[in-house]
Write a structure and sequence with these properties.
Number of domains: 1
Number of strands: 8
Number of helices: 5
CATH architecture: Roll
Distance between the termini: 8 Å
Shape: globular
Helix content: 10-25%
Largest sheet: 8 strands, antiparallel
CATH topology: 3-methyladenine DNA Glycosylase, Chain A
Radius of gyration: 16 Å
DNA sequence: AGCACGATGCTCT
DNA sequence: GAGCATCGTGCTT
């Protein structure tokens, strides 16, 4: 089966409805250059955070120092710190001025696996705080455009994942978020391991 | 294999 | 000063 060469996803890819972006990022390649080493993972889990009204989104508090990247142009990174030790990676979506983003919750390593394993002390990369640790993503990657190949961090075309391989359900870790936001089916998750051959 | 809980520090009230 | 878009450990089943 022929597959196209990977190319970075353009800003126009991210400047679209957040749910569409969240779904289409499943199977995309997340590329990180860390200390000159190329680390790549296929995105296997995402969640959409959409607008001022979404009470699960940080943007519910308005535009603050922390949430500022969410209001910025699509295709940039929104990286924030939580629970005293974890960094979360988001890709900003929608038009500038409208707060929305897709949280990258899990990757399946395909390149630089040994380095990622070492950084994770042999544990997996399935979890939003785990993948950022594996890839060395912190505050310094906040605001970074994810649309430029050969920078420090970008997202490029990967494998096509059919609907039958994707589970859609409510977002997790929301705790006290009220309905209807608590149950919005805005989480996308690959059911089984992805075929990484290209 | 599943659940409960403590760690830990930054952001916003 | 409270509350996290979480993780890992340790204990129970």
């Amino acid at each position: 089966m022929a597959r196209s060469q990977p190319s970075p996803l353009p800003a126009a890819f991210f400047n679209r409805p957040t749910l569409t972006v969240a779904r289409q990022l499943i199977g995309a390649r997340l590329v990180r250059i860390l200390d000159g080493v190329r680390l790549v993972g296929l995105i296997t889990e995402t969640e959409a955070y959409f607008g001022f009204d979404d009470l699960a989104s940080h943007a519910k508090a308005g535009r603050t120092i922390r949430t500022d990247p969410m209001f910025g142009p699509a295709g940039h990174a929104y990286v924030y710190f939580t629970y005293g030790s974890h960094w979360m990676l988001n890709a900003v979506t929608e038009a500038e001025g409208f707060p929305a983003a897709v949280l990258v919750r899990a990757i399946q390593p395909v390149e630089g696996i040994a380095v990622m394993m070492e950084r994770r002390l042999g544990r997996d990369t399935l979890g939003p705080g785990k993948l950022t640790q594996a890839l060395g993503i912190t505050k310094s990657e906040n605001y970074l455009p994810l649309t430029e190949a050969n920078s420090r961090l970008w997202i490029e075309t990967g494998v096509l994942v059919p609907d039958k391989s994707v589970t859609i359900g409510p977002r997790v870790g929301l705790n006290k978020t009220p309905e209807p936001w608590f149950s919005k089916p805005w989480r996308f998750l690959v059911k089984d391991q992805l075929n990484t051959e290209r």
